[in-house]
Amino acid sequence: MSTKASESEIREWCIAYLARALKLAPERISPQAKFARLGLDSAASALLIADLEDWLGVELSAELIFDHETPAALARYVARCCATAPAAAR
Which of 13, 19, 57, 86 has CB atoms 3.0–4.6 Å from 26's, for a disulfide? Predict the structure, then answer.
């Protein structure tokens, strides 16, 4: 992605990703649901972060999911990181 993603775009991406991974309808995934409660294990969490990095074109820590435990919290944090990331990193 060559432009900065908004918090809502990142949140919707996370929900769509989780819906595909968990074979659920996107509307069944609350932005406030904890990743662990949704059944995301450490391997699935690492894949989510890797795919999010690819989509955004930024480097993210695999531990983000443990520090930001919901799609909403993760999106809020990542959007702030993307807003302050140097253009060369994207």
Answer: 19
